[in-house]
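Quick one - first record:
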Amino acid sequence: MEEKVKDETGGKRQPGEDQKDPRVYMAVERTFLAWVRTGIALMAFGFVIARFGIFLRTIAGASVTAHEHGSGFSLWLGLAMIGLGILVCVGSAFRHNQYVRGIDNGNFRNAFESRLAFGVVALLALAGAGMSLFLITL
């Protein structure tokens, strides 16, 4: 005989029945949208970083020419952040699809991984260290 589990409302449900609960799908959707917001923020931040170098050259005045300073570290770091934002958006779409399929097939735990999150955090830590070094050398 299968054991019934009490839910939040005090009702009885079958084990594994919560996987078809629409709240689970909504939670996966919220997670997907949070990753999309993160990707958009990374792209916007990358744009700001790329333009920061131009701002610094402008306030430095005519003493530093564009040829001496080149395109600068901030341009490449900004482009990398924009690329990271694009990868986060694309990766989150694939992960969302995996999660929904995992829920539908009843093996959500096998589909769930945190590698994307840890990868983004590692890249952001490297970008922060790079920006710190850049500001120190000014």
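second record:
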Amino acid sequence: MQLGKAEVLSTRRPRPKITVVGAGNVGATAAQYIVEKELGDVVLVDVIEGVPQGKALDLAQAGPIHRYDSALIGSNGYDESADSDIVVITAGLARKPGMTRDDLLFKNAEIVGSVVEQIVARSKSAILILVTNPLDAMVQLAWKKSGFPPQRVLGMAGILDSARFRTFIARELNVSVENVTAFVLGGHGDTMVPLPRYSTVAGIPITDLLPADRIAALVQRTRDGGAEIVNFLKTGSAYYAPAASAVEMVEAIVRDKRKILPCAAYLNGEYGVTGLYVGVPVKLGRAGVEQVIEIRLTPEEQAAFQKSAAAVRERAEEVMRIPGPDGKSLMHAELKIGDSIFMLSDEQPGRGCRAPASVGGPTSYLYIYVPDVDKAFKRAVEAGAKVIVPLSDMFWGDRFGQVEDPSGHLWGLATHREDVPPQDMAKRQKEFLASMGQQKK
């Protein structure tokens, strides 16, 4: 080394670029946690004009006080998100009192499908973290739409559910939450599977510290954790804990921690499940999901997990049958009868075209394109069908509604009104979401 001349020890690596889609409570709080931990620069995207820009600027002005230098950009489009390393998707409608996560299925699938298309076009190497509910179905949809390897598409659920379980255990025993570990498997919903046997306080299983009836009460409160908050808030849902859970995943990836965390991950035979995203413990590092961790389950635990996975699969199959925001269908089989088109899914051979309940099969779901959907919808209701989704003009050019017939079959009825040019699609989508008074999780 020459005396008096500085030697370059390393090249300066740019900070990771992290895009958060959805600037509502969950998205904005996630952006806050990300910059406070100095995990990277943040692009905050939302369809409502001014909201992402204002929140990004507000967060930037907190930087001198909280001592972070991360750059923050707010945008109503996706160009600023180009070449993101990680994308956290929180966009979607929020739960309201009396709603289940599954009630959000159809509307949020439209939103998430569109978001994923925009992101993939600009960030082909990104890792996608889904937060939008119903989580399990949304992450399955995002994986299908993105074409990414399953290791780079995952969902936030188990961390949140486990954190809620840990909180309730700590309060029950009057101990620090830092002493508590907890384990929750399965879907992010009523069939989630908290595992008391793998939940401990300072290494002691809670089964040694609490009677069975108290453990059962804590398990049920964990399952109802999201609904409990919704009932308190009335007009919104949880956001601090969901945002913190998503950011723990971001941190494990950015810092290549190889941390074991419960996430919605793609299973390929693990736990006896194939081709489905379900909540399981995974090793999370810079490449995304580096390993699915299999643990031994008792017969009762395995049965509960299989029940949860079956519920997840049913939701995933439903979401893969709804029309995408580009006006095309996610389905791959069509049957034309006269002027009508019956659309069926063959995404998973043997599962898409299902027999109706009247001949011994499970309840079925069909989309039918007809010449006059208003007339068909009226006749269906007059015949005793229950309205599930009222008729409305969709931004991709269809007039669409959904009914349930007296036998429990779901029917999506639609008439294609117009082909919407790609340049008009984004504008229409913004107007459509704004008209619904879009809220976040």
